[in-house]
Amino acid sequence: MSSWFISHGAAFIVILPLLMAVITALLPAVRRLAWFTALIVAVLVALVAFIVLQTQIDVGAFIYRMGGWEPPHGISLAIDAVNAPIALLIAAMAVFTLIYAEPAVDSEVQRKKRAPFYAAFLLAVAGLIGMVVTGDAFNVFVFLEVSSISTYTLVAMGANRDRRALSAAFNYLILGSIGATFFVIGIGFLYAETGTLNMADMQGILANLDGGSRAAQVGFGFVLVGLGLKLAMFPLHTWLPGAYAYSPTVVTAFLASTATKAALYLLYRFMFTVFDPSFDYVAVTLTYVVTGLAVIGMIFASLQALFQTDARRTLAYSSVAQVGYMLLGIGLISTLGLVGSYLHLINHAVVKGGLFLSLGAMWYRFGITRISDMAGLAKTMPITTAAFTVLAFSLIGVPFTAGFVSKVALAEAALERGWYWAVAVIMIASILALLYMGRMMMVAYFSPPPASAMGEDGRVVRREAPLLMLLPMVGLAVTSVLIGVRGNVYLAEVSENAARVLLPGGGL
Amino acid sequence: MTIPVKKKPVKGPVVSPAGSDPHVLLRVISKFLIPLIALFAFYVQFHGEYGPGGGFQAGVILAVSVILYALIFGLNEAKRAFPPWLVRVGMTLGVLLYGGTGVVAWLMGGEFLNYSVLFPDPIDGQHYGIIAIEVGVLTTVTSVMIAFFYAFGSRQPQIEDGEW
Amino acid sequence: MILAAEISPAIPTILLDVCLLSLLVVTAFAIVRMRSLFAIVMLQGVYSLVAAAWFVTLDAVDVAFTEAAVGAGVSTVLMLSAMLLADRKSTPVPKGRQWGALAVVLIAGAAMLFAVPDLPAYGSATSPANAYVGTDYLAKTAKEVDIPNVVTAVLSSYRGYDTFGEVVVIFAAGLGVLLLLGLNGNAGRYQAEVRGRKLSETSAPTGTAERDGTASAELSTREVEVAKTQSGPPSVTELEP
Fold first, then answer.
1. Are C235 and B155 an interchain contact pair (Cβ–Cβ within 8 Å)?
2. Size of interface B-C (CB pairs under 8 A)
3. Which residue is closest to B100 within chain A, CA to CA?
4. pLDDT at residue number B5
């Protein structure tokens, strides 16, 4: 049986959630049935994703021929050191958020809509994994759409809480569709240039053409802009704060930890595998455009985060800034830079997912979304606040947390290239992170709880989040510390392998 | 045409004076047309291997026949002919039929969607596999298109003549 | 496919192409300039029909058929039924906000024109798209799938995984409509609950409606506008104040 998973696991982790989503949509509104189905599916997917990762480590990169057709005529899934860990990351985050979902969705989604809601969630999971594992450029677009369309719906489901979720979802829909259109136009130009849709094949042909003609260059531009919209590259991030702030808590946590990450993976794939930094136009774009936008985004989005009144909007702007770090790693075009970028991608998924989960728990208990309302949470919800604090330290980059490891790796990469100013930008953005996260923690720890939180005898009444919410939150907080303490043992190796696959020549 | 919807009072069904049904021509003609449209859909479906067409186009055409029925005879009549629960089940069934073909290929020892392993002769397998998945496409596309129409149409209790 | 290739005339169809393409451009401009949504929906149907005709002259009959059935057919009807829930006229967008969109369109268009000189000639048999995988499909289909329509063989067998994904996309769209509108038009009346109580009943800092007043400052004006128009349809129950 396990040998079957070794040879078919790559397809299984996409197909299982897809087909189970379709079945879940029809499940009756029996208590917890839909939730339990979705959770079991996510756990299975995570297990098989782990088998796929192990297989990849054992045998190296391999492909899965869909329909039994050889590439480039058929579609193949291509697993290598870059995407296998990200597929596992997405599946694992789906497990974490789905454990949390039971109480959260219970309070946010009406009873008879829960089954379709979980169906849409599973579709989003399947779409994200599908676009990560595939080795075919057009197939990326198809699964991008699967994940996007279900995500738009999930964001709009936040309207049960706040009507502004509808306009946020509409904004996201329009900008996301524009992004997808740009991406598919780019694929069209690449097809005109190379005559193939298989990414490995495209890579070979483009390398032979030494970067190709203007058609390839224009295709490159369109793909970059399309993916930039999806991953919230700085000036193209306007959909993100609304979508994160108003969608249901589970959806925010899952989106923040996976959606932009999958798009970022695609950017790695296209910038370094399909195209190559040895082509002039790629090197120039990465060095000047991507790096420039990354740096502006890091500072500007951090400043915007500082001036938000809503806690979830603060974290959303912080996400835009963190994407800047990852883009900076790409812009460095070096193995070290990619290691830093990849590490930061994984760390940020863990950290931001956990942060949004704990904010969601605060909403669940007290209906809080504004920072000023977080007063006294350290006393009323001590465990949630503790998890929030650990994760916030990790976001800031305090030593012995995940954020520290990746920020140091990025700073080292910048020093190697001689970009001292980039180190300064990393420092400034981290200080800004300290300010905006510190603001929330100050309120939570040092402001007295509101009178409504006091019991009859004038003492603070503890109203901790339910166990199902605490488990994933604390789990992610512990993970971020583990990465910080022992991260250089395992994760650094994973990142180095990924960076070596992406940049076999070692960069500029 | 310019009056915003929200200000319009909700009226009951349009009652026309006896013997002066303004849509009598439409009703008579569409009674002939609708079966033909559905038949054409199936022609497109099963002729897709020989000429242009296939499950996607056929699904749209089949859905149009139901939508036309709804436009002419009213949404409630259409919902009696093609009930909403059937729409929901159809959406799921189509994807399951498509994915199920792939899963059967898995069980027969091939890759996902490898129709060649479905039958001893790979060419037969390809033929039957394609027919199966095209029926899946047809089912999902038809159901979803009708779902769109039901969802949008049901929000307004009665479609007034002036609305069009 | 094969049939169309056999009867394709020796004389260039360039004149026809120019006519159809200019019709497309004219229709597109008309759609942009129109204010009546009804007319816009109709013109979109016209656009799709002209596009379908143009696809026929490109010998892409399968695409043309899809465009005619989906673009000109069912999506026009769906847009009309969606229009029942909206206003009948579009509100003009302020001039100031049109410049950004214009810039994006101009840059994207200029980028595509920039690539044109290096693209293979129209219909060239030696272009990468025709000569490489495309030619292989023609040879392989007869041997491996054995059905006359190569397009169907590519879509359902060679790239059947893509088509599966597309069916799932359609399912996802249907699921979205199901979740947000409901098939009987009764969705959207539910309110989230904080620890078992309705949101609007909870005390001071939490009520959505109350917060709207203070929070709208941080919203862009456009978001507020959108939020206002969305409270339109009468069947949507509003949040209690």
1. yes
2. 182
3. A19
4. 43
Note whether C174 and C199 are same-domain residues: no
- pLDDT tens track for A356-410: 999 999 988 888 888 888 888 888 889 999 999 999 999 998 888 888 888 999 9
Strand partners for A454: A460
Nearest to C82 among B53, B152, B164 (CB): B152
Would an 8 Å CB–CB cutoff place A418 in contact with chain B? no
pLDDT in tens, A143-191: 999 999 999 999 999 888 888 899 999 999 999 999 999 999 999 999 9
Inter-chain touch B136–C173, beta carbons under 8 Å: no
Mutate to test the interface with B, among C56, C62, C74 (most CBs of B within 10 A): C74
The answer, for C109 touching chain A at a CB cutoff of 8 Å, is: no
Q: Where are the domains of chain A?
A: 284-508
In chain C, the number of structural domains is: 3
Check pLDDT > 90 for residue C227.
no
Determine the pLDDT at residue A367: 83
Domain assignment of residue C162, given as a range: 122-180
| Percent of chain C surpassing pLDDT 70 | 71
Co-location of C146 and C176 in the same domain: yes
Question: B52 is in which domain, residue-wise?
Answer: 23-159
Instruction: Say what the pLDDT of residue C216 is.
Output: 35
Give the C-alpha separation, A101 to A108, whole Å: 10
Helix (H) or strand (E) holding C198: strand C197-198
Tokens of A483: 């990465």
Residues contacting C93, CB < 8 A, separation 6+: none
Q: Which residues of chain C are within 8 Å of residue B99 when distances are taken between CB atoms?
A: 164
Q: At what angle do helices A291-306 and A311-331 cross, to 10 degrees?
A: 160
Q: A19–B99: do the CB atoms touch at under 8 Å?
A: yes
Q: What pLDDT, on a 0 to 100 scale, did the predictor assign at position C15? A: 84
Hey, is the C-beta of C167 within 8 angstroms of any chain A C-beta?
Answer: no
Query: For residue C33, is it within any domain?
Result: yes
- pLDDT per position as a tens digit, B115-129: 999 999 989 999 999
Cβ contact (<8 Å) for A26 and B89? yes
Ranges A184-193, A447-456, B45-54, most confident: A184-193
Q: Which residue of C has its CA nearest to A70?
A: C158
Q: What is the mean pLDDT of chain A?
A: 91
Q: Quick one: three-class SS letters along C30-78?
A: HHHHCCEHHHHHHHHHHHHHHHHHHHHHCCCHHHHHHHHHHHHHHHHHH
Let me know if residue C58 belongs to a domain.
yes
**Structure tokens that stand for A357 in this block:** 């989960």
The per-residue pLDDT for range A121-145, each reduced to its tens digit, is 999 999 999 999 999 999 999 999 9
Q: What is the pTM of this model?
A: 0.89
* DSSP states along A119-154: HHHHHHHHHHHHHHHB-BHHHHHHHHHHHHHHHHHH
> Which residues of A are less than 8 Å from C161 in CB distance?
66-67, 74-75, 139
- Is residue B18 in some structural domain? no
